[in-house]
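Good morning C.,

I know you're traveling, so I'll keep this short. The sequence:
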Amino acid sequence: MARIMIVTENDMLRRYLGEKLKRVGHFVTRMSDYDVALTILFESYHDILLTSVSSQNNEGLLFSHEARRLDPEMRVLFMTGFSVVPLVCDAIDDEGFGDRLGRPAHLNQLVPEVSRLLAA
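The tokens, ready to paste straight into the viewer:
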């Protein structure tokens, strides 16, 4: 199973997603502070980063950019409202991000989406 970091300021969402992923056997790290999360990502490997894009000042996007600099192989799922948007890396640009975002999926699709990313 995968090591997944969930970083969002929303306590309920962090708890819900963490429990859902733990139930299927993933190791989950839940964080609300982006700076602390970066420190943990620097010190330990994670397969997937699940983070929010709707935080203040684009903090979630900036955070994911820094996280990908630490580990370019780490997969990223962006949460946008009540959907999840995978970062699909068909081609990597100079900043280390893929060239497009995949289609949104409902939160009920989170576990299958994580499985799909791990298989890619």
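Safe travels,
E.
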